[in-house]
């Protein structure tokens, strides 16, 4: 898979892909990450890429020309399965979308800044719009890191044990059950007996029950009786 990230602040990605699972995924050629600076496509002397919004109102808007030039150039080089704009005024990202994106070849992530991007970029190029939560970030960069991480770890071969990803919270619509490691007792708190017993059926049943219990308690919106 190849992920192209379009950003006005490429430095925000320093470090994001340089450790742990994402670093290994890049080293092992499961994914290529290419970061593109919108400012490189400014036609202005001062390299400006934003302007006041028509109609008035606070906040600057990323201009149409540099973004169109950059995205147009990338689209000429390859066909994109999805051109995704990260923005708080969109439907929420979730595990189902991460699963879908993880099976694609070429994805572009478009990071907004200031008040957002000129609507015509959305009309011309964007195929998907996603928000990572009902709050506003300073720009789409951190959201792009979140989305990239969620996608990359699902690419076949990236995790040593894919069953680990399949048992994550949200993968089956429920939150994950509690997990424990050694020691079996700590400060008087004991690991549930069933996990020590080695009866796979019993353990699975216990995990299902705990998943349901946790989901009903903290995310009742995810739980339905049918
Ligand atoms: N850009 C600013 N806020 C955002 C959010 N919540 N999700 C995605 N992109 C954003």
Could you explain how this protein is built, in words?
- With 226 residues, the protein is of the alpha/beta class.
- It has two domains: 2-152, Alpha/beta knot; 167-218, tRNA(m1g37)methyltransferase, domain 2 (Trp Operon Repressor, Chain A).
- The chain is 34% helix and 19% strand.
- The chain has helices spanning 20-27, 64-77, 95-102, 119-124, 141-152, 162-166, 193-197, 200-218; strands at residues 2-7, 32-37, 50-52, 60-62, 82-92, 106-111, 128-131, 185-186, 189-190.
- The strands form three sheets. It has a five-stranded parallel β-sheet. Strands 3-4 form a two-stranded antiparallel ribbon.
- Helix 1 (20-27) links the parallel strand 1 (2-7) and strand 2.
- Helix 3 crosses helix 5.
- It is elongated and about 70 Å long.
- Adenine (ADE) is lined by residues 86-88, 112, 131-133, 135-137, 140, 143.
- Residues 86-88, 112, 131-133, 135-137, 140, 143 line the site of adenine.
Distance between the termini: 37 Å
CATH topology of the largest domain: Alpha/beta knot
**Rg computed from alpha carbons, rounded to a whole number of angstroms:** 21 Å
Bound small molecules, which ones?
adenine
- Helix content class: 25-40%
Count the strands?
9
Lateral strand order in the biggest sheet: 2-1-6-5-7
Strand content: 15-25%
Primary descriptors:
single chain, 226 residues, alpha/beta, Alpha/beta knot, Trp Operon Repressor, Chain A, five-stranded parallel beta sheet, two-stranded antiparallel sheet, 8 helices, 19% strand, binds adenine
